[in-house]
Amino acid sequence: GRADLEDASEHLVTIVAGGALSTIEARTFDDDPGKGLLAVDVGDAIAVVNTHVSFGPRAAGQLAVLATVARAAPGGAIVMGDFNADASVVRAALGEPLVLSDLAGQGPTRVGSGGQPGRTIDHIIVLGGALEDARVLDAAGLSDHNPVAATAVF
What we know:
Layout: E1 22-29, E2 32-41, E3 46-52, H1 59-71, E4 76-82, H2 87-94, E5 99-100, E6 122-127, E7 130-136, E8 148-153
Parallel strand pairs: 3-4
Antiparallel strand pairs: 1-2, 2-3, 4-6, 5-6, 7-8
């Protein structure tokens, strides 16, 4: 069914099995109110940062904000979402050391449409840990993005 947002800034959701979460930061980006981040502490000082980054020139500043939030988590961080950029752009912006999901050969995360080819612009990144079994799932037509899944190990 349809769920109306109470506030236009409420556009990211993070669901984690078990336990309570505490919010570290929730914000929209100043230069694009339709995009932002939600960072939650999932325990052991590990942050999960869910994001939707703008396409194009606005992305650089937004990625810098993401890097700052993710690197502030003393236990490590998982950063995931729609980056609207390929892996090389995200890696350069967030800096090393990090582990970025290797989705090569698995098909696009952004489904092609209107004559445009699909692209891999959704990623999972780990700082202070490792990624296992990164994969692109089939959205079965429910979205214009195919979900990305992986196991993070700290």
